[in-house]
Amino acid sequence: MDYVNGPGRNHLFVPGPVNIPEQVLRAMNRNNEDYRSPAVPALTKTLLEDVKKIFKTTSGTPFLFPTTGTGAWESALTNTLSPGDRTVSFLIGQFSLLWIDQQKRLNFDVDVVESDWGQGANLEVLASKIAEDRSHTIKAICIVHNETATGVTNNLATVRKILDHYQHPALFLVDGVSSICALDFRMDEWGVDVALTGSQKALSLPTGLGIVCASPKAIEASKTAKSVRVFFDWSDYLKFYKLGTYWPYTPSIQLLYGLRAALDLLFEEGLDNVIARHARLGKATRLAVEAWGLKNCTQKEEWFSDTVTAVVVPPHIESSEIVKRAWKRYNLSLGLGLNKVAGKVFRIGHLGNLNELQLLGCLAGVEMVLKDIGYPVKFGSGVAAASAFLQNSTPLIPSRI
Fold it and tell me: According to the UniProt entry, which residues carry N6-(pyridoxal phosphate)lysine (predicted)?
């Protein structure tokens, strides 16, 4: 049996799917309804307008696909590119690897820039490639904003500066699955042409919505892109947008109402406050890791992620044993190490509907697990380091001031 019940609540600290707020669960607890009735298009219209706010765009066009982030990847690529087009894509971890694999299987000419896992995208190599590409053979830059496997966040503003410096017309495509609604993201300011996220991450919804936002430049590119697409075709959505019915096929009614509740919660807290909360939780987790005498997989502070921390274990410890013991004994769910870092790291997710005391409970649980598997952790060391930081940095809850 994959899952058996345990007393109390499961402490979910994987980097997605994340905890779902009670308000969202209640909003989704409803019957099906006719999506062609006036109610669902009216709801959809408000969702599309409000989704633009989480991308920080006024000019982008959003699309809500009943899919995962993988489907959102495919939509971003196939609507803007043609088979054989050259892309530059950065391999820095498991999820960037999967997106590169998708690009290759869709028959694009992928120019892979690889870094050690734990490092960010090598933007010096990007600058060199862009400078040399005077004939503009590079059609798109594809980058994962936050690589969940290693806890690395890339600097998107620098990518835009490179493109602008060389006046290069390449499209700028960004995977923001584990960043948007948790990390600073500015679609218009950074000139991002396609950004995407998934509902099960910082939005704190169930899996099932792939949310894509396209700039006017990307919409224009979609008119001539020759990649085959059907389910993910933007033109089908745009046709129904004009008709005011919005949906070319059946949406998930429950997820739409859940999205409405999730957005309301984010806006009530304030998006900048949400980002600051994630920054506090990320810093507190890193302080705990340091107090335990362990290392962060991310190799430089400039790349530290505020949504997930990948913790490197000593060579004699198998990190999957930490994850197994946490779930079996303490009802604590931690993230496994993936691919090149399998067995070498475990991951603490700190994104979505999460507060300071929940995080401290997780850190206490990790300390017990470390002691269980023979690592000489001092009880309370990580919790104390995190607590001291959070006690000095946590503001009053905005809605209660």
Answer: 201
